[in-house]
Amino acid sequence: MTSRPIVRFLDRTTPPHIFTLIVMTGLGALTLNIFLPSLPQMAVYFDTEYRVMQLSVSLYLAVNAALQLLIGPISDRFGRRPVLLWCMTLFLIATLGCLMAPSIEVFLFFRMMQAVIVAGLVLGRAIVRDMVGPTEAASMIGYVTMGMAVVPMIGPAFGGLLDQYLGWQANFVLMVILGLAAMALTVRDLGETAPKNTSNFRQQVAQYPELLASRRFWGYCLSAAFASGAFFAYLGGAPYVGSEVFGLPPSVVGFFFGAPALGYFFGNFISGRYSVRFGINMMILAGAIASMTGLLLSLLLFTLGLKTALVFFGFMTFVGFGNGMVLPNATSGMLSVRPHLAGTASGLGGAIMLGGGAALSAVAGTMLTRGEGAFPLIWIMLATSALGVAAILYTIRREKHVMGG
């Protein structure tokens, strides 16, 4: 479609309201990080080592990436609404399992099962693309994912307070409550948006080569992967830089750590406001350049001897700002290359983005040493951002020569 369809809030005969889409995507972000301050206490509770407890994050992300490959084509076949409701039901079961787990093994099993909530993100993007054309989809996705910028800033802080006063289980009780509320909202407001599709699941998966053969699809995927990869590298290295390089206490590191999320919020706002006017390619290019520029300035100041926490974390807002412009527009682009495969493209693109970003996070964590300071992390992020600029420049050139990939 090229114009936005009629939407009536809490009317399941119409497409969902943007508030419902924000709730769907925000719940997944909250599930990832709200309980992170509780990991040490949970390790004591389950009588295990901290590194084992950390598997609740890495395994969750791994299953998250794998599920994105499946949820998209399943929803293209059976529809967005039933798949999302089933995934929310499984999420509630998994969260109760985490809450009542008698051992770390049982907890990790249900924690991996919680990853089904990624359906909110995958299908939220696909639903937007079902409703509107590519440029307006980028605008809507920008507003929808703006909520995901707020959650990483407040989620861990709120989770830490819950743990301090009520215990780690309070975080999972809150997830159950929010999951029930999100499911009730979805039941009432989410009308089906997917076009009718008579192919079976095997036929849907067999359409992956159609996407993978498109150079434009790869261009948008790599633009998103490199943008998010810079941020994942930051996630892997910034805690070390803050505590070991700058000697900051955990409370101050936590305060500075949200700098990219602040930039991401404003980048999403710019996407929502101007993507329709300037087009997705120009917005991606501007965002990638903004991210690279911030890192270049950070590297320059560090080279000149201004090696301070304020310089390091302050310029990370450029990375968040750039991502806020790149990710919604690149996502819209990858969904628009083959509109009839919007759900499949959302899942496949998301898996590529998450997999590449997680790998860069691991690389950043292994390359940092006390003697090198923050330089290795800045260089990794700068190189990744430069590759993001190259990816979108290639995509723009490809689009000019061969429309449709």
Distance between the termini: 20 Å
Q: Multimeric state of these chains?
A: single chain
Strand residue percentage: under 5%
Kindly provide the radius of gyration, computed on alpha-carbon positions and rounded to a whole number of angstroms: 21 Å
- Return the CATH class of the largest domain: Mainly Alpha
Please state the average pLDDT score.
81
Contiguous uncertain segments of 5+ residues: none
Proportion of residues in helical segments: over 70%
Structural class, from helix and strand content? mainly alpha
Overall morphology: globular
- CATH superfamily label of the largest domain: MFS general substrate transporter like domains
Note the run of SSEs as H and E: HHHHHHHHHHHHHHHHHH
How many domains in all?
Answer: 2
CATH architecture of the largest domain: Up-down Bundle
Walk me through what this model shows.
- By secondary structure, this protein is mainly α.
- It folds into two domains: 1-203, MFS general substrate transporter like domains (Growth Hormone, Chain: A, Up-down Bundle), CATH 1.20.1250.20; 207-405, MFS general substrate transporter like domains (Growth Hormone, Chain: A).
- It is built from 18 helices and no strands.
- The protein has helices at residues 18-33, 39-45, 50-53, 55-78, 80-100, 104-113, 119-131, 134-166, 169-189, 201-205, 208-212, 215-245, 250-257, 259-278, 280-303, 309-336, 342-367, 375-401.
- Helix 4 (55-78) packs parallel to helix 6 (104-113), helix 5 (80-100) runs antiparallel to helix 7 (119-131) and helix 12 packs antiparallel against helix 13.
- The radius of gyration is 21 Å and the shape is globular.
- The model has no long low-confidence stretch (mean pLDDT 81).
